[in-house]
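Agenda item 2: coenzyme A complex prediction
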Amino acid sequence: MRVALDRADRALVAVLDDQVVGFVRTMSDGAFAVYIADILVLPEVQRQGIGTSLLRAVLDHYPMGQFHHQVLIAERDAEGFYRRMGMSAVGTVGLTAFIRTRNTT
Ligand SMILES: CC(C)(COP(=O)(O)OP(=O)(O)OC[C@H]1O[C@@H](n2cnc3c(N)ncnc32)[C@H](O)[C@@H]1OP(=O)(O)O)[C@@H](O)C(=O)NCCC(=O)NCCS
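Presented output:
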């Protein structure tokens, strides 16, 4: 985790009453693409706008007027959250996505 944080392009936390309650990090080439990773909000404070603020901060940091795409991998349960933020499932824009993970062949 330390290496992942050190090498992230941006790593943001949300702080409430001196406690870290939310987190997001990004990887980017600074010109064309950004990958948004690990957006997490503490369960006790979900649905209070913290996830929206974290995601808005990173989406705005890589403006679509300059970047070609902003991309992330989402849990199916969280699809509504990303749609609300103006993001589209890959299949709806005539594209697909591929992944290789340690847990699949
Ligand atoms: C997904 C997550 C980051 C959202 O953060 P949050 O602070 O709870 O989100 P917000 O309060 O800003 O939510 C804004 C809106 O997004 C939608 N939304 C939020 N979480 C959602 C979810 N899990 N599923 C569907 N819609 C969701 C709702 O419409 C919500 O508005 P509402 O509360 O008025 O209905 C947070 O629920 C989380 O950390 N979940 C567990 C980890 C996770 O799934 N991370 C994403 C991995 S892809």
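Discussion summary: The CA atoms of residues 19 and 94 lie 42 Å apart.
Owner for follow-up: CH.
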